[in-house]
Amino acid sequence: MSEFSVSRSACNSKGSMIVVSNRLPFVLKRNEKTGELERKASAGGLVTAVAPVVIRGSGIWVGWPGIHLDNPNEKIPESDPLDKTPTAGLRSNKIGPPSTRTTGAPI
């Protein structure tokens, strides 16, 4: 084993990860017909690598939703049940813009 190798057990964590990013790990858009928010998978290396870790550790992802929300407490939709992308397991109560939505306290 080289001096730079890291064992798999060294990467296991009992804590939760909080990701504070400039964007949420998916794209939100408003349906023009219904006015409802829709959640679409976002492609990106950071999202692909980090989202599974956040999900497994029951972490939180905080970031800008990519669109203006008139009501900052508007519910972010859950992922489509058929979604197989890395962000599919991020529940709406574990993601959101900086607010009391995700942490229970202002950020």
TrEMBL record:
Gene3D superfamilies: Glycogen Phosphorylase B (3.40.50.2000). Residues 72-107 are annotated as: Disordered. It comes from the Eukaryota. Residues 72-83 have a biased composition (Basic and acidic residues). This is Trehalose-6-phosphate synthase. It comes from Leptidea sinapis.
